[in-house]
Structure formats: C-alpha cells, structure tokens
Amino acid sequence: MSDLLFVVGPAGSGKSTASRLIAQRLGAAYVGKDTVATGFTEAILTLAGTDPHERDNNPYYQDHVMDLEYETILRVATDNLMLGSSVVLDAPFGRYLRRDAFLTDAAERLGWGDDVRPVVVHVRVDGDAIRDRLIGRGLERDAWKIAHWDEFWAKAGRVECTWRGAEHITLDNTGDAPDVEGLVRRL
Predict the structure, then answer these.
(1) Which of 5, 15, 123, 154 has the smallest set of CB atoms within 10 Å of its CB?
(2) What is the pTM of this model?
(3) Distances (CA, A) of 64 to 45, 46, 51, 58, 67
C-alpha cells in the first residue's frame, strides 16, 4: 500500500515545510509544484507577454498554464506510486478543492489502483499569521496577494476540500512547527 498525501492550504500556510517534514518522516517521495513547474511557468508566461510572477490575477495563467502544472505533478506522483513509493504532493490545489470527483477522476485517468491510499492533509493557520508569512518571505508571486489582502483572503480563507475517495486530516501549523508525529500516528 502506497500513501498519496495531498498537502493543501493557502499560500503561506506552511505547506512546503509540512510536506518536506512528512515526506522525510515517511520516507516518501516529495513532489512540490513550485519545484516542478515554476521555471517552465515563468518562461511560458514571459513568452505570452504576461507577468511571469503573477498567478492569482493572470487570465493567461488561469486559462492555459495552471491545469498543465497540476497534471504534471500528478503524473510525477503516479510514476513514483507505480514504483511502490508513497508520495507527498505540495501544492495548494485551490481551483480543484470543490470538485467532489477530482481524486476519483484522477485515479481513473492515471491508473491508481486499490493499493494507493489518497490522504488530504489540510494545513490550517489563521489569516494574520499567513499574511505575516507572505510578507516575510518576500516572493514576487505573493505581491498581488499582499496588495489585495482582503480579496485574496476572502477566497483563500474559506476554501474547503470536498474530494471523495480520500481520508481527510487537519494539520494545525499555527505554532513553531507542525505536529508531523501526530499526523503520522493518525495515518
């Protein structure tokens, strides 16, 4: 049995930190959307004449690039699952979280068998902490989020995942470090 963990939450919630710790603790493959796709995405957005760092308010990215990024990380995960490795996916999956059949459709399309156990890890942090983290990390791709905080948080702070076919676990990342050991025990 291989676990496929989807670590989801808004930008600045600590998905990457938690994902790496979980992957390390489980001896699982780590697949981060930023690592896999950022270079290609920025090149594509530049070639299209749009801001290479803008995602949230970029129609070209939303309409032509985003689905490709997510399909790519799902395929990388599938390659690892077929080798018998558990996988931790580090990506917000925001657009897809309310698509009830997202996981079951992906499992069918990508050939995940009954030996793959999908688990959604919901990283939770309050909005003030997230805003502080976004400001602190100083990434260009967060500029729109910070400049339009109320609009960003109105959407990102209320998103719930409705995926069927997965176990759902909450990971509180408000403190200094997420409780990865507690999460592993729940698995």
Answers:
(1) 154
(2) 0.86
(3) 10, 13, 14, 10, 7
Q: Are 47 and 177 in contact (CB under 8 A)?
A: no
Tokens of 185: 């025990």
Joined together, the tokens standing for residue 113 give 């068998």
- For residues 13 and 132, the answer to whether their CB atoms sit within 8 Å is no
Q: What are the tokens at 160?
A: 């719930």
Print pLDDT tens along the chain (187 aa): 999 999 998 777 888 999 999 999 999 999 999 999 999 999 999 999 999 988 888 999 999 999 999 999 999 999 999 999 999 999 989 899 999 999 999 999 999 999 999 999 998 887 787 788 888 888 887 888 888 888 877 777 776 899 999 999 988 888 777 888 888 888 8
